[in-house]
Amino acid sequence: PVGGGMGFGPWLTLDAKGIITAHCPHQEMGQGTTSLMASLIAEELDANPAQMRVEHAAAVPAYSNPTMILDSLPFADDDTGIVATAARATLRHVIEAFGVNGTGGSTGARNIAEGTQRAAASLRGVLLDAAGKRLGVSTSELTIERGIIRHASSNRSLSFGDVAIDADNITPRE
Known about the structure:
By secondary structure, the protein is α+β, with helices and mostly antiparallel strands. It has five helices and seven strands. Strands 1-2-3-4 form a four-stranded mixed sheet. A three-stranded antiparallel sheet has the order 5-6-7. Helix 1 (about 35-45) runs parallel beside helix 4.
């Protein structure tokens, strides 16, 4: 993980204090990419906004932005013909293999949404699993409210930071 803590793909980390750091691969130029990342993660985790940080990520292949280049192909968005489909698939593989990073063409939000949501959902599952083990209860009995994991019937709660180290030893769900 970038900067320590437990990592969930290249998209986010959680530290022992319960701070969630999103790693944004795009430069913020007014399109709201950093706000979108924080919002997607906070919504999935029901996190307290005070727990969120967004940092710009290093330029590495995991953050390739095929959308930026694929949008420039001479095919209509709804063209599903064999040539358009083959061109998109081939170019996507090349871009991802070489890790073409970039910000442009209003593609940042489309490029980060799926990976960010998957990473946050993975983190949510791991946090619930860790809290369930710590409290000795089923994860189905737990809820998360504003960054606090609660077990209503016993009136016990844990912060993300309380279970961060335990969570680091749990394999994320698929």
